Structures are given as structure tokens and as C-alpha cells.
């Protein structure tokens, strides 16, 4: 039989004999800690000193502060509002008083005389409910902790990839403002991360042709809205020193739930040392007059 060791019960009655009878009955059937109060104010004071009280058995007819007033005060405080209160009374037996008891927050309203086994069963029922709730809370807390650890691990994994990737990464707002970068971009451009964040992408990027550079964000957004991604664009980064760094550039739009662009992800590969090779047209192709240009990964040799 579960004797509910570790539970704490507060009994409140202005008659010492009633407290003794109730305490003796509880002690005979369970090992819960029993606290006693002879007035409503003393009961409230005890809840201040014992925030781990699990259940309160409260008499209704008491001088100065009756049980209804005491329960109302307990329900006002955040630390005590969730403690179950059982009213136990020999005087206020009408349905009107019972409705009032439930209205001030009681979970039960018991009338004296009451059979000992019935009272113990009532107390046991609430202890079992509390025990079950605590078990569910522990399971929930464990699941939250496990999920939090999984998310932290995934975040760390992603951060490691971003930190150690060889290509430059810039994440932009739709306006073109840089909101995030990675070490490769900082090395390529010669800026600290804090300096890059907040700059406009147009300050560090140019495409071939002045007219393209001038219409940078407008052209981008129009194309990204249509296609969602633009890749393998030959362009240049403008380093802090003013040096132009040849890059092969890709950009992808990230959409929010309303289908609007929330972020633009830009990835750039440093093409310094690579040479452009003109390929002869394939006689068997549909357009023999169109030259196809590509970048090869052969480094430029010295004279």
C-alpha cells in the first residue's frame, strides 16, 4: 500500500481536538508530513514557510477569518493558488455553502461526521492525482531537455559547417543589408564580421558591367521572385583594400509562410588564380555560331 511518504498536508481547524483526531487518523494510514494551523492567518503563514504543501484540509467555521476567506486569500497568491483545498465542516452543510466553497476554489466539500475510510480515500485520491501529474511533468521536462539538447547539437553542427566551409557565405535581408557572414567571407573581403554585418551587399560586390552593378538589388529581387535561385554568376567582391576578387557567385531566396522573401543566401567561390578558357563551338550543336564560355579549375601558370 502506498503510504505517500514525502507528501505534505496542512490541516486547519480552530479546535485542537479536531486537529488531534485528524492527525492521528492520517498518521495511521500514511506517512505524509502533517502541518497544523488553528486559524486562517496561521494557515497562510505556514504556506509562506512551506511552499511544498501538497494538500490543505480546511475547516469552514473559524473566528476572525473563516475557511472561505482563508481559501480566497490562498487562491490570490501565485505560490498557493494551485494547492488543492478540501473543506471539512460540521456546520455549513447546505447546498448554498457547498456552492460557495467550490466558488472560492475548493476541489471538494466534505461534511462531518464522515467515515474514516472515506476521508482517507479522498486524501489518497488527491495524492495519487498529484503524483501522476508530477510524473507527467517529469516526462515532459525530460522530453524538453532531450529536444533542447538535440537542437543545440544540430545548431552546433550547422555552425561548424558554416565556420569551416571554404566558400564565402553572406545572408542578406531583402533590402540587401548583410545580416550574417562566415569566416571565409571575412578573409576574402578583409573585414571583421561585426564590420560586415549592417553593410549593403552593393558595398562589397559588383557584377560585370556598370549598368548591372547600378541595378544590383532590383535586378536580383525580380529574378529571385521568379526563379527562387540564381547560380554560377561571374562577379567580383570588393575587398576592404579596394582589390577586386573574382568570384563565382550563387544566390538563393528563402521564403516566409506568406511567400515573401525573408532572406537571401549568397555563396561565393574565390576564383583567383583560375583562367577563363574559350571553347570552340561544337560542329554538331544546334547553334554553331555561339561560343560557350566556362571556367576551368586550372591555375594560371607564370611565364
Structure, briefly:
By secondary structure, this protein is of the alpha/beta class. It has helices at about 15-30, 40-50, 65-75, 95-105, 115-165, 185-190, 195, 210-215, 215-225; strands spanning about 10, 35, 55-60, 85-90, 110, 170, 180, 205, 230-240, 245-255, 260-270, 275-280, 290-300. The chain has two domains: about 10-140, Rossmann fold, CATH 3.40.50.2300; about 165-300, Beta-Lactamase (2-Layer Sandwich), CATH 3.30.450.20.
Unreliable segments of 5+ consecutive residues: 210-215, 285-303
For the largest beta-sheet, the strand count, sense and barrel status come to: 6 strands, antiparallel
What's the β-strand tally?
Answer: 13
How many helices? The count is 9
- The level-1 CATH class of the largest domain: Alpha Beta
**What is the H/E string?**
EHEHEHEHEHEEHHEHHEEEEE
Residue fraction in strands: 25-35%
CATH fold-level name of the largest domain: Beta-Lactamase
Spatial shape: rod-shaped
Assign the structural class, choosing from mainly alpha, mainly beta, alpha/beta, alpha+beta, or little secondary structure.
Answer: alpha/beta
CATH H-tier superfamily of the largest domain? PAS domain
Rg estimate, integer Å: 37 Å
CATH architecture descriptor text of the largest domain: 2-Layer Sandwich
